[in-house]
Amino acid sequence: MSFFATLMALLLEQAKSLSRDNPVYAGVRAWVQWLSRNLDAGEQRHGWLAWSVAVLLPTALAMGMHWLLVALVGWPLAMAWHVLVLYVTLGFRQFSHHFTRIRHALESGDEDQARQYLADWQQVNADDLPRREIVRHVIEYSVLAAHRHVFGVLACYSIGSALGLGPAGAVFFRMAEYASRFARPSVQPAVMVQGAFETVAAKAWTIVDWLPSRLTALSFAVVGNFEEAIDGWRFQTQHFPNDNDGVILAATAGAIDIRLGGVALRARSVDIDAAAPLQIQGDGATTPGRDPEVAHLRSVVGLVWRSVVVWMLLLALLTLARLLG
Questions:
Q1: Tell me: the pLDDT tens digits for 140-190?
Q2: Which of 41, 134, 189, 222 has its CA 20 to 30 A from that of 214?
Q3: pLDDT digits (tens, 9 = 90+) for 223-249
Q4: Could you give the 3-state DSSP secondary structure of residue 261?
């Protein structure tokens, strides 16, 4: 079931992707922010309560619906439920159009347009950014977006499905990621105070993403330059053990032999929809490798799609093992 559900969800998402302002994402954002306003009284236990309700309740509902459909109706409708959940939580089209626009602008030599696209995508200040740095940031943001929207979801869904939890793993991963982004009680600069929910959500996301981030890094290593990717991963883990994003970026850099990391971009404005500037842990720290060039964007696309093939093969083998078992 997991293989066919994932395949159908990916095909549906390629044919008709959800828009950024669709009712599902807007509802999740409103849900998390409502919990932040009403359950976060500033104490640690309130933060954990808000996080548990925000993340574990939708996860339990997804799992309960799976079990209910299997028990009362059978696997066809249960698989349809898997496809629906994966369609909402999984997909390249949630970010790939940004990558494509920037890449086309760079290939046509329009660096100003590429800077504008990058600034609009991440809500950062990209003024006067050199061409090499545009490429670097695009690669970093893109591979981390691929992890959060695709590979992390696949990892948690596969684990949950193997344990008989249905699509609960996919919901758990995405809700934990959403909570880490939207737990902020207010976006007004005058009242920007970090609440317990925001602190707890950030800590919980680091824990939740520990294994999926390393599975993503491993998949990049398998389909790329394995030895260099593992060396970069090992160095990053030894020096910054809690930096999950850094592990992915270090593995990516080694897999295609490019230099990633460095000074992060500054946020253009305070906006909860804007991803925080991303870089290898430690401002200015970089990995070994060649300077990023526009041609490396094609290498990143190949790396990501080869990793998708590896994950689909893995899901096919798991599905076959369940059928034979």
A1: 999 999 999 999 999 999 999 888 899 999 999 999 999 998 876 544 444
A2: 134
A3: 999 998 898 888 887 777 778 999 999
A4: strand
CA distances from 125 to 202, 274, 308 (A): 24, 12, 32
Mean pLDDT of the region 295-299:
91
The answer to whether 87 touches 11, Cβ cutoff 8 Å, is no
Q: Report the b/e string of 274-304 with b at 16+ CB within 10 A.
A: bbebbbbbeeebbbebeebebebbebbbebb
pTM of the model: 0.88
Cβ neighbour number for residue 307 with a 10 Å cutoff? 25
- How wide is the angle at C-alpha 143 spanned by C-alphas 107 and 150, nearest 5°? 120
Q: Give the ranges where 73-167 is alpha helix by DSSP (H).
A: 75-89, 96-107, 111-122, 131-146, 152-162
| Alpha-carbon Rg for the chain in angstroms | 20
- Biggest CA–CA distance in the chain, Å, is 60
Q: Determine the Cα–Cα distance for residues 263 and 277; give it in Å rounded to an integer.
A: 9
CA distance linking residue 240 with residue 261, whole number of Å: 13
- Which residue, 157, 178, 192, 189, is CA-closest to 86? 157
pLDDT, tens only, 257-283: 888 877 776 665 544 344 444 444 444
The half-sphere exposure of 277 on its side-chain side, counting CA atoms within 13 A, is 20
* The residue type at 81: W
